[in-house]
């Protein structure tokens, strides 16, 4: 890693028109082709933090939303105070790199923040039942908004990403787990409990399991038969083991010519198509953007488009399925965009 240096980027001139500022803070123009308004294009930089179970990654973006600085540290796994100290250190690093203690910063988190109580729920981060925002404010003297990682990913792809210009975008993350977010006309729909689109914890239809003689598998959420058990990266490996394939690594399964591995990929695509069918009939997105490790499977967009086409309602137009444009930076970029626009 190259040594970091402090950068001084141009600031917004003083004496600016506050009416313009208000206009820049409007999220989108709701028109025939919705577009997110990113805020001032000169002198405006922002920071985003991607907070996951293994790493806390801070990214500083310039006015064109290009990453100019990145720093990654491990996520403390068991102690809330150590976790807050590490997260605070990343925020201070961003402020120092920008030479701006008021730098717009937001945090993408792999978990749920209750909008009423501010309390967090997360599987792999030591924050459940704690108020991360309040702890950060106590130490830093400022509000640092937190956004679900699937929602941040989707916002990034809806604004200058693979879903740019579409009036409704579903961002689907196919990684170790399965999650999704939804942006409509450049905005998030209202969410009562702070949940994203928890599509990974819907049950696979009995008809789909019966087609392949698949068993019901228990899920970590306490239920059985959740999509996440079958179509996540972990689920793909589990399918391969169930089928007796000698190839069990997700990337290797997708590339293998072994008959059992090919069958596993056919089952996986069929079940993922069922999940997308559920998303279409419930949410009717114009574009579905794929992220996470499984989005790197060759031709995944055409595979899943074909699977969805076989299941769709008669006469219903299909959504476009596209790979993500911003890759691993999506969560931090989406959070930074929202902080920059003053929307969180």
Structural summary, described in words:
35% of the residues lie in helices and 17% in strands. It is α/β, with parallel strands linked by helices. The chain has 2 domains: 28-152 and 328-340, ATPase, nucleotide binding domain (Nucleotidyltransferase, domain 5, 2-Layer Sandwich), CATH 3.30.420.40; 166-324, Nucleotidyltransferase, domain 5 (2-Layer Sandwich). Pfam families: ROK. GO terms for molecular function: ATP binding; metal ion binding; N-acetylglucosamine kinase activity.
User: pLDDT average, as an integer?
Assistant: 87
Give the termini distance in whole angstroms: 32 Å
- Per CATH, the architecture of the largest domain is 2-Layer Sandwich
Write down how many β-strands occur, each being a DSSP E stretch of 2 or more residues.
Answer: 13
Cα radius of gyration in angstroms: 21 Å
Percent helix range? 25-40%
- The backbone outline, from C-alpha atoms, is globular
What's the helix count? Answer: 11
Arrangement of strands in the largest sheet = 5-4-3-6-9
Show unreliable segments.
Answer: 1-33
The name CATH uses for the topology of the largest domain is Nucleotidyltransferase, domain 5
CATH class of the largest domain: Alpha Beta
- Series of secondary-structure elements, N-terminal to C-terminal: HEEEEEHEEEHEHEEHHHHHEHEH
CATH 4th-level superfamily of the largest domain: ATPase, nucleotide binding domain
- Let me know the largest β-sheet: 5 strands, mixed
- Total domain units: 2
């Amino acid at each position: 890693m190259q040594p970091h240096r402090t950068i001084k980027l141009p600031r917004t001139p003083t004496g600016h028109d506050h009416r313009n500022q208000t206009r820049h803070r409007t999220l989108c123009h709701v028109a025939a082709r919705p577009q997110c308004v990113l805020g001032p294009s000169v002198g405006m930089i922002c920071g985003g933090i991607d907070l996951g179970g293994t790493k806390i990654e801070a990214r500083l973006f310039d006015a064109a939303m290009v990453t100019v600085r990145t720093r990654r540290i491990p996520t403390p796994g068991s102690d809330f105070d150590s976790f807050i100290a590490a997260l605070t250190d990343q925020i201070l690093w961003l402020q120092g790199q920008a030479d701006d203690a008021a730098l717009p910063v937001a945090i993408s988190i792999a978990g749920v923040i209750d909008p009423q109580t501010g309390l967090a729920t997360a599987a792999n981060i030591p924050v459940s039942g704690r108020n991360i925002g309040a702890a950060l404010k106590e130490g830093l003297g400022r509000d640092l908004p937190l956004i679900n990682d699937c929602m941040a990913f989707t916002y990034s792809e809806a604004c200058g990403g693979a879903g740019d210009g579409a009036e409704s975008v579903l961002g689907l993350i196919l990684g170790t787990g399965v999650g999704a977010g939804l942006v409509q006309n450049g905005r998030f729909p209202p969410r009562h409990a702070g949940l994203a689109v928890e599509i990974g914890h819907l049950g696979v239809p009995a008809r789909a399991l019966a087609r392949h003689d698949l068993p019901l598998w228990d899920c970590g959420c306490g239920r059985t038969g959740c999509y996440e058990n079958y179509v996540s990266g972990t689920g793909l490996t589990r399918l391969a083991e169930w089928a007796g394939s000698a190839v069990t690594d997700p990337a290797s399964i997708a590339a293998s010519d072994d008959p059992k591995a090919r069958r596993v990929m056919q089952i996986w695509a069929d079940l993922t198509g069922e999940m997308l069918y559920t998303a279409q009939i419930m949410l009717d997105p114009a574009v579905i953007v794929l992220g996470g490790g499984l989005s790197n499977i060759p031709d995944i967009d055409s595979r899943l488009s074909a699977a969805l086409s076989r299941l769709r309602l008669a006469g219903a137009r299909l959504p476009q399925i596209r790979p993500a444009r911003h890759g691993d930076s999506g969560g931090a970029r989406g959070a930074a965009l929202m902080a920059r626009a003053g929307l969180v």
